[in-house]
Known about the structure:
By secondary structure, the protein is mainly alpha-helical. The chain has two domains: about 5-60, Double Stranded RNA Binding Domain; about 80-125, Arc Repressor Mutant, CATH 1.10.1220. Helix content is about 50%, strand content about 10%. Strands 1-2-3 form a three-stranded antiparallel β-sheet, covered by helices on one side. The protein has helices at about 5-10, 40-60, 90-100, 105-125, and strands spanning about 15-20, 25-30, 35-40. It is built from four helices and three strands; from the N terminus they run αβββααα.
Amino acid sequence: MKTLEYYMNLPYRLEIIPDTVEGGFGARFPELPGCITCADTIEALYQNAVDAKRAWLQAALEDGLEIAEPEAEPDVSDFSGQFKLRMPKSLHRSLSLHAKQEGISMNQYCLYLLTKFDTEQEKLRA
């Protein structure tokens, strides 16, 4: 049987969310549903998060609930950097024309667009 300390030492991902309306910060552990907390400062938030994690795990153990263990982040070496993509001919044509206007290959142009979009999405998540 796994103990509270076993689970406390696992590297659960902690998400920190700034509260832009009232100030302070919120935090959650995505692998531990409902395990959330908040605080006025990052320092207090971290301690509150540790306390919330401990209380959540203790309650789950007492209730005999299954506790998910964190999944390891995939290593960059697990990816080839290539994938195939099917698209409508009209989009293929449009991308090709825009790449030509920029004086770059369609591959470079698509990489630029994907990077730009991904970066914007990451900013929205932060």
